[in-house]
Amino acid sequence: MKTAIVPRPLDLREVGPAFLLTFDTRLCHADPAKGIARLLRDRLSPATGFPFLAGDATGDSTNAIVLELDDRVAPSGYELLVNSDGVRIRGGDEAGLFHGTQTLTQLLPPQIFRRTLVPGVEWQLPGVEINDRPRFAWRGMMLDVSRHFFGVEAVLKLISRATSFAASINLGFSASEARRSATVCAACASVSSMTRMN
Predict the structure, then answer these.
(1) Under a CB-based contact definition with an 8 Å cutoff, are residues 100 and 148 in contact?
(2) Quick check: 99 and 74 in contact, CB under 8 A?
């Protein structure tokens, strides 16, 4: 198996031709998935320079990334299909859909994590079929800023990286240390505004 994803999905099959993201690739979704679509667009657009204009999830899905909520998929689980026509991600709920989009970013070249335009990259996704759901009730990381000081940018970067790997964050800090508490509160406020779904 050539495709590597962290954490390893329950079921991953390579199914054939790849899909190439282009300037005309659309991001199709129904209204309940608009928050996840916005987060995905915010992740993909800076490095690619593509606008990922919104489209209707029930319409033509050629050259599109389609996001759907489907109650037949396990809670927090997702199904991801990539073929030469496009991408379809079905999530059992918003958490599952979000995890599916994080897996999608791992399938792209690593330059996708840059926050500025990266010219000369072929934004190709391998043809895969992935079915996944959480194997554990909790998968996370601990950041203890009461013993080791981290600035707002470092905390935000850790949170972003952790969510890329379907992990949760547990922040530990002492309220008596005003400087550290203020830093964590500023980071939490930034994350709260970034992850608001509507």
Answers:
(1) no
(2) no
